[in-house]
Amino acid sequence: MRLVLHVNYLSFTEDLPSKWWNKEGILDEMIVILDQQFPSLIQFFGNSDKFYPIKDINEVKIEYQKIKRSNTAFTLSEFPNTEGNYISIRLADTIGLRIAIEDNLNSAVEKMIETTDAIFRAYVNSAIFGPNLVIYSPGHAYPKRRPVRNYQFLYETGIVNFIDPRFFEENTHLKMNGFEKLLSAPLPAGVSRTDDKGLICIKWAGKFINEDSVTKALVAREDWCYDNLSLESDDNFNEYGDMIYTYLGSLDELNDSEFFDFYDEELEEAYKIYSIKSDSEIDKETAEEIKRFLSNGKTKNGLLIERAFLVAQDRDQAIRLLIRARELGLDDVLYFETLDGDRILWSTDPSGDWRTK
What we know:
Blueprint: E1 4-7, E2 10-12, H1 26-37, E3 43-46, E4 51-54, H2 57-69, E5 85-91, E6 95-101, H3 105-123, E7 127-129, E8 133-136, E9 158-163, H4 165-170, H5 173-176, H6 181-184, E10 192-196, E11 199-203, H7 211-228, E12 243-247, E13 252-253, E14 262-264, E15 269-273, H8 284-296, E16 307-312, H9 315-327, E17 332-339, E18 342-347
Parallel strand pairs: 1-5, 15-16, 16-17
Antiparallel strand pairs: 1-8, 2-7, 3-4, 3-6, 5-6, 8-9, 9-11, 10-11, 12-18, 13-14, 14-15, 17-18
């Protein structure tokens, strides 16, 4: 696994020229901070064309002066070959630095916190920080609750969140979603909230010693966020936690000679509409046909079956028939409803690592 610190989108409160990156001292102060924090680490310094390695801070200063003289803006772009932990710093949308950190997990977290505090102290009188100040673990998998929520600037896999309260003062709509609770509401045991000269730091675990500790921190954070913040649900989920599997309109309708009613040619998936009312059983004739076609691995007219689904009349029936359907070899029992003209096929038991509180 790896960690990333994003220090992004500083909103400068003082009047700056249109080419503000040329203003004396704006980036120079950042370079001084990085020189103090990372005197011997490889630096990645970017302009609008590329990122390239620089072996010491003096080279960063030289390249910075070159770009200042050429009136070219800096930009932060993806650097996919960077492995391990790194810090990604962007001032507004135009200046970017990336610094690799070779420390172990917990040392990297502490170094990232120290760096953020130093940057905040340097710019607190001229800029408002927010919203994307976070240490996160890209792509880290952990068991989630349903429906999945949109974490906005908190990041789904954030393990340390930094908050400049002035950002909330300028974005009052976030207060209506309960985000001000991040500043004062009680936190779970083992979670710390500190205030360093106005920058709030919420660290979602005491120590990060391995991947398991990161997972536990993300689970604790998710439970707290679900209980305290009004996070919007992900568009792929409904209020019950059911997940969109596909849209009926995207499937090919089969002719009457076929047992199955719809087919996805690209995924080789077959769908059978189940029109019989039933509490928990699938009628014997349908069950035998399902077993026969799944055993053959293709439909009556030779369409290959990689996955197969029953489509119930409603959500309640989908839940009742699920156990029996999987005993027969079906992948899931879906149900459909029409929303805004789209006929959505929902799964009440989507694949994934899910949990209840």
